[in-house]
Design brief:
The complex is a heterotrimer.
Chain A: H1 2-19, E1 33-39, H2 43-62, E2 67-73, H3 75-83, E3 90-92, H4 96-104, E4 120-130, E5 151-154, H5 160-174, H6 181-193, E6 195-199, H7 202-210, E7 216-220, H8 221-229, E8 236-238, E9 242-252, H9 262-272, H10 275-283, E10 287-288, E11 306-308, H11 316-337
Parallel strand pairs in A: 1-2, 1-3, 5-6, 5-7, 9-11
Antiparallel strand pairs in A: 3-9, 4-7, 4-8, 4-9, 4-10
Helix pairs in contact in A: 2-10, 3-4, 5-6, 5-11, 6-11
Chain B: H1 7-43, H2 48-56, H3 58-91, H4 97-103, H5 112-123, H6 130-133, H7 144-169, H8 172-180, H9 185-196, H10 198-214, H11 217-222, H12 233-243, H13 246-274
Helix pairs in contact in B: 1-13, 2-13, 3-7, 3-10, 3-12, 5-7, 7-10, 8-9, 10-13, 12-13
Chain C: E1 3-12, E2 15-25, E3 30-35, H1 41-49, E4 56-61, E5 64-65, H2 71-74, E6 76-79, H3 91-101, H4 106-119, H5 135-147, E7 153-157, H6 165-182, E8 185-190, H7 193-199, E9 202-207, E10 210-215, H8 217-222, H9 227-232, E11 237-244, E12 247-250, E13 253-256, E14 269-274, E15 279-282, E16 291-304, E17 307-314, E18 332-338, E19 351-356, E20 360-362, E21 368-373, H10 377-392, E22 396-403, H11 409-424, E23 430-436, H12 439-449, E24 454-458, H13 472-479, E25 484-487, E26 496-501, H14 508-521, E27 524-531, H15 537-552, E28 557-563, H16 566-576, E29 581-587, H17 591-594, H18 600-607, E30 612-617
Parallel strand pairs in C: 3-8, 3-9, 6-7, 7-8, 21-22, 21-24, 22-23, 24-25, 26-27, 26-29, 27-28, 29-30
Antiparallel strand pairs in C: 1-2, 1-4, 4-5, 9-10, 11-12, 11-14, 12-13, 14-20, 15-19, 16-17, 16-19, 17-18, 25-30
Helix pairs in contact in C: 3-4, 3-5, 12-13, 16-18
The chains are: A alpha/beta, B mainly alpha, C alpha/beta.
């Protein structure tokens, strides 16, 4: 009996000693912390590149230590978390739609489109990742209509990347010569019939593809470039001739930022458009928004013959209404589930 | 272990016995044993040093510590709450006692995700109650407080289920004996009732601890999944997996699995001690 | 430390668990409360301890009222039925618990514990846990634990409950020794008579919440005050005898009164108690040491350790139906002969003579009557009958009033008070009971809770609408455990009683009950049998039986037999013969069966205009 008691006591003490460091009083809302919520593919570049750089710069400039708290998930998830009170100071979305929603809910109170570059900090085109050797010869969205092709697609309900993918698909069918809305509808319908897996975020979809699902993954170019840079890419990139640039905004969440922190938040945002930050983005596979020439520094970028942006559809609110809700949710999703 | 099969029986049954046992193993193996084994295989696939490296990363360490911390505090809170509840139910009559008794066991039936969602809707900054507390600075959601709230809620029935039957079985005369000997209510509780609950409290604590360690559904909703702040071990595993860092995910998963085994075996040992094995 | 219980009353819901108990326990004595489960004895014990509060009454320890004190403050030692030793503490820690709470020093505690361990005969057991002890050992530890802090009173609740006979005997001895050594006032509660007799300096007998008797064991056993107490304590033979000069006549025998006993009045009827061991048998009359009672033969003989228990049939002697050795035939006596008492016949069927070596005269007990009033005229009549009978039999009266609805409450209480006052002018012992609820149910509950001999209710008789029998009167008379008297008419004393006999047998005790009433009211009894056309011999023979029973009670009985339709014949006879009381039988329990519209009793009841006494027909064997 006493031996077990001793062991139990030891375990207990060990436990306390191990978990003690947790019990640091929450720095929380102090002016030396910034809470960043971002969408999935930004996790590495932000935590490993941007934040340390900013910390260093801020220390040099003001002598202050900044602590960052981060959380990454699908863009839709991030938006909802913030809506339900996640204490984000800055949100890095995959598309402006999520920002519009938060604005509607009163969490964002300023017009970020007035900022330089309309608040966008970097961009990357939507491409296809296919198996090595591209056995099925997939290179354009039209190829994905073919029966027997398995597609891994992020889930438009939670992933920002999925929304970009939808627009890319639509544009590829509609915008070229001879294309039309009807063609887009037909094409996307056939394409979506081939979707075999939905990932909750672009990153998650990537993992599914890695696990061996599907023949093609529709995702950000950055996903491929990041691994190519590290020499760990076992697949192949196929860049459709017609595809969209996904452009990612960074926006301060006004409701969560107390007045005394506003300067820090602004400084952080400003930093994102500096050459230093843009270079970091390029290094990690994102294309610069401020200066195209910086893109040359990453040899793994592919040329996009016919790129377009969300402006081609009249901005996010309209694009969302017409394509995401109108076409995909109300028509395609119904059809595909039958 | 005594052999209850007499010799003739063994001879008769041998072929069937062997087959049945093999079938059992064939079913159990892929269902239970192999998945757990897979974790360890994957975790150490790139070598032990990478395993240690993944484990000692900042995020992993924080997640483990946080999970253990939360499990400890949850167990502590629940032992007090559970004992108090069991005591009140055993000794007092009050209106709506029976429906309340059923209600407090509800968390077992509710999916943990639902628990998390409802807590968020109640206590979040725009929640039914939270909206009044938020300006006062009381913000349990997306912080450790919220996690504790969720874990206490979800694991409460396990503690109660361990303590209440023992308390109920305690005859009234047990307490009365103490009263006649001069011990007041408080002293009786401390010297007589609590010690007799030792076993139950221990079991309850282990169960609560184990469930808290593995809690995902409610935690993912209320914690906000903030790295190095509110990311518990299960959340870390999930995050890392989604991000593609399989080794990191598996490393922490392996640690959780080992912890669970230890807890399980201790539980088994304790309960076996109280009821002699009939093997 | 003396303990005094004054007018203690405790009710659980509608049930009275402890009913006006008055008890005094002397300092230093070992008092045993003896009773069956549910008799209220444990509740009394717990009230002394303070674990339960009485609804009314006071508990005093040496003139100090303890009602408001908690168990902790009373300084009592309690030994529970299941010992309730603390399982997680050692024996020593258990025993020392009370001292620890009181802040005694460790050294002193240990000393005391060791002394107690010696006292209970378990030296060195301090380190063991209760689970390692046998039942008997646990019991002793429980006692030591209760004594450790030197309480002023030691209370034991069925302490020997779950133990085997041998352990019981040992523990009884131990307890007695401990008590003698320490001299603590001790109250023990048990259902085991041997416990009570062996341990009690005095004992008290409880039954259904009432304390029936207190006194030294031998006293109560040999000289009980009532039939009930007598049979409670053991097998008994009761006889009804008539006083003659200085002898009691039973049958054809005369028992001489012991020297110095004050003789009751000549001609008075007395109840005589003769215990089985107070009877003797022999082969010849000369061998008898006591008074010759009669001769008969051995029906049954059982050898029990040092005794022979026999049932002996004796002609010419009839005993009251109360417990013998399980025999209900009143012509069989229960006899116990000690094997060492010389030789005596033991074979079945052997012819023997029976003698009485000693006996005890029970104080006479009158009828305990329950009368229900409801504020109506008929209730008034019933009350008058009740007072009359109560007076004649020197018994007690309880008046019950039942309010059906809340509004009637005040009226009911008033009526009760008035009735009680009126009754008390003529008889001494009058009690009232007020109940709320359905009258029939409440009355039946009352008869179950307390011992009555007769229930009297007013009815509307033949002036009632045809369905009146669905009423209180009907339900009570069919379901009550004792006879019911229904009174549709104003009061008239009993001069002539008509007993209607059919072939269906009524309980013998009920027959005797009628006889008792007849005797006390000096009424003449006529047995009446109506045989259906064609003649039924069975009814005739039964008639003779009943006549014999009544004659044995010293009554003169007329018999009449008529033929014809039963109901009308009975009614005709009742009217023509100017009888004041009709006695009829009814089947027990089943209301519908008993009062099927074509049954004799219900028909008679609906047309009769004089009081009817309803007895219960025994279900066919």
């Amino acid at each position: 009996m006493t031996l077990s008691k001793i062991i139990a006591a030891l375990c207990f003490l060990l436990l306390i000693a191990y978990t003690w460091p947790i019990v640091i009083p929450e720095a929380g809302r102090s002016s030396n912390t910034l809470v960043i919520y971002g969408f999935s593919i930004l996790e590495e570049v932000v935590t490993a590149g941007i934040l340390p750089a900013f910390q260093k710069r801020w220390k040099e400039q003001t002598g202050q230590e900044i602590r960052f708290y981060t959380s990454f998930a699908g863009s839709g998830t991030v938006m909802n978390q913030i809506r339900f009170g996640a204490p984000a100071d800055v949100a890095l979305f995959s598309n402006a739609l999520d920002a519009y929603r938060l604005k509607g809910a009163g969490l964002i109170r300023h017009d970020w489109t007035a900022s330089p570059h309309k608040g966008i900090i970097n961009r990357t085109p939507i491409i296809l990742i296919v198996r090595k050797g591209n056995p099925k010869g997939l290179s354009r969205f039209q190829d994905l209509e073919r029966p027997g092709v398995g597609i891994v697609h992020p889930d438009p309900q939670t992933s920002g990347g999925a929304l970009w993918a939808l627009l890319a698909e639509y544009g590829a069918f509609d915008l070229p010569e001879g294309g039309s809305a009807a063609a887009a509808r037909e094409g996307m319908l056939r394409l979506w019939k081939n979707v075999i897996v939905l990932g909750s975020s672009a990153r998650a979809a990537r993992t599914q593809f890695e696990m061996g699902f599907g023949d093609a993954l529709i995702t950000y170019e950055q996903e491929a470039v990041k691994d190519l840079t590290r020499g760990k890419f076992n697949h192949q990139v196929a860049v459709p001739d017609w595809t969209i640039y996904s452009e990612h905004p960074a926006i301060a969440i006004d409701r969560n930022v107390p007045p005394e922190k506003a300067p820090l938040v602004q400084a952080f945002l400003d930093f994102l458009w500096t050459e230093e930050a843009q270079k970091i983005f390029v290094q990690y596979g994102f294309r610069s928004i401020t200066d195209e020439r910086l893109d040359a520094e990453n040899p793994y970028f592919s040329t996009v013959p016919h790129p377009f942006t969300v402006e081609a559809f009249g901005g996010w609110p309209r694009a969302n209404a017409d394509i995401v809700e109108g076409l995909w949710r109300n028509q395609i999703l119904e059809e595909v589930h039958r | 272990m005594n052999n209850t099969l007499s010799l003739p029986r063994v001879r008769l049954r041998l072929p069937w016995r062997g087959m049945l046992i093999s079938i059992l193993f064939l079913i159990l193996f892929p269902l239970l044993i192999m998945p757990i084994g897979a974790i360890f295989v994957f975790a150490t696939r790139d070598g032990l040093s990478r395993f240690i490296h993944a484990l000692t990363g900042e995020g992993a360490q924080f997640a483990l510590r946080l999970s253990l911390f939360v499990a400890m505090i949850t167990s502590l809170l629940n032992s007090i709450l559970g004992t108090l509840t069991a005591y009140i139910f055993a000794n007092y009559r009050f209106p709506a006692k029976r429906p309340l008794g059923i209600l407090i066991n509800l968390p077992v039936a509710i999916p943990t995700v639902v628990v998390g969602t409802s807590l968020l809707l109640l206590w979040g900054p725009i929640g039914l109650v939270g909206r009044y507390f938020d300006p006062l600075g009381f913000r349990p959601m997306f912080a450790i407080g919220g996690i504790l709230l969720a874990h206490v809620f979800v694991t409460f029935p396990y503690m109660l289920g361990a303590v209440k039957p023992v308390l109920d079985e305690l005859e009234v005369t047990y307490e009365e004996a103490a009263y006649t000997m001069g011990a007041g209510r408080l002293k009786t509780f401390w010297y007589v009732i609590l010690p007799s609950l030792r076993g139950a409290l221990f079991t309850g604590t282990l169960l609560t601890f184990a469930h808290s360690l593995g809690e995902f559904g409610a935690t993912v909703m209320v914690s906000g999944n903030l790295r190095l702040r509110t990311q518990t071990a299960p959340l870390y595993i999930f995050s890392q997996f989604e991000a593609g860092n399989i080794e990191a995910a598996n490393a922490v998963a392996a640690v959780l699995a080992i912890l669970s085994f230890i807890i399980f075996f201790v539980l088994l040992h304790v309960t076996e001690r109280e009821q002699p094995d009939e093997a | 430390m003396s303990i005094l219980l004054r007018n203690i009353l405790k009710m659980y819901g509608e049930q009275t668990v402890v009913n006006e108990v008055n008890l005094e326990i002397f300092p230093g004595e070992l008092f045993v409360l003896l009773g069956a489960s549910g008799s209220g004895k444990t509740t009394i014990l717990r009230m002394i301890a303070g674990l339960v509060s009485p609804d009314r009454g006071e508990i005093l320890f040496r003139d100090r009222v303890m009602n408001a004190l908690t168990p902790q403050e009373r300084n009592v030692g309690f030994v529970f039925q299941n010992y309730s030793l603390f399982r997680h503490m050692t024996v020593a820690e258990n025993i020392g618990f009370g001292l620890r709470i009181r802040g005694t020093s460790r050294k002193e505690r240990d000393e005391k514990i060791n002394r107690l361990l010696d006292l209970i005969g378990l030296p060195g057991f301090g380190h063991r846990y209760p689970s390692q002890l046998s039942g008997g050992q646990q019991q002793r530890v429980a006692v030591a634990r209760a004594l450790a802090y030197e309480p002023q009173v030691l209370l034991l609740d069925e302490p020997f409950g779950a133990l085997d006979l041998k352990t019981r005997m040992q523990l009884r001895q131990s307890l007695k020794q401990i008590h003698r050594q320490l001299g603590v006032t001790t109250v023990m509660v048990t259902h085991d008579q041997t416990d009570a007799f062996e341990l009690g300096d005095r004992i008290g007998i409880m039954e259904r919440g009432k304390l029936l008797a207190t006194g030294e064991p031998s006293d109560i056993y040999k000289r009980p005050k009532s039939e009930y107490v007598a049979q409670f304590l053991g097998a008994a033979n009761f006889f009804t005898g008539i006083m003659q000069e200085r002898n009691i006549q039973i049958g054809s025998s005369f028992l001489p009164l012991p020297e110095g006993a004050a003789p009751p009045e000549k001609g008075e009827r007395v109840q005589v108690l003769v215990r089985p061991e107070q009877l003797e048998i022999a082969s010849y009359r000369e061998e008898l040491r006591g008074t010759y009672l009669g001769e008969g033969e051995i029906r049954d003989c059982l050898f029990i350790g040092g005794f022979h228990r026999m049932t002996v049939h004796v002609s010419g002697v009839v005993r009251s139906i109360t417990s013998g050795f399980g025999d209900t035939d009143p012509t069989n006596l229960s006899v116990q002969m000690a094997s060492g008492q010389g030789s005596y016949p033991t074979g079945q069927g052997e012819k023997v003579v029976v003698g009485v070596t000693s006996f005890h005269i029970l104080p006479y007990q009158g009828l305990h009557i329950l009368v229900g009033i409801d504020g109506s005229e008929h209730g008034e009549h019933a009350l008058q009958f009740a007072v009359y009978l109560s007076k004649k039999t020197q018994g007690r009266l309880t008046i019950i009033g039942v309010a059906e609805r809340f509004l009637e409450e005040t009226k009911a209480r008033e009526g009760l008070a008035q009735a009680s006052q009126a009754a008390q002018k003529q008889i001494q012992e009058v009690a009232t009971a007020y109940r709320r609820g359905h009258p029939a149910e409440e009355i039946l509950n009352e008869t179950e809770q307390n011992l009555y001999d007769l229930v009297i209710l007013g009815t509307r008789g033949r002036h009632a609408p045809s369905r009146f029998l669905g009423s209180t009167a009907a339900r009570v008379s069919v379901n009550a455990p004792v006879p019911t008297l229904l009174t549709p008419t104003p009061f008239q004393d009993f001069k002539r009683i008509l007993v209607c006999i059919s072939s269906e047998r009524v309980r013998k005790s009920d027959i005797r009950f009628v006889g008792r009433i007849a005797r006390n009211t000096d009424a003449g009894v006529t047995l009446f049998h109506v045989s259906p056309e064609g003649g039924e011999k069975e009814g005739y023979f039964y008639l003779q039986e009943v006549r014999q029973i009544l004659q044995n009670l010293g009554l003169r009985v007329e018999t009449k037999i008529a033929e014809g339709e039963i109901v009308s014949t009975i009614l005709k006879e009742a009217y023509e013969g100017s009888y004041d009381l009709l006695v009829l039988g009814t089947r027990v329990g089943n209301l519908r069966e008993a009062f099927l519209t074509n049954s004799v009793t219900s028909q008679v009841l609906s047309q009769v205009d004089r009081p009817v006494l309803i007895l219960h027909i025994r279900p066919p064997m």
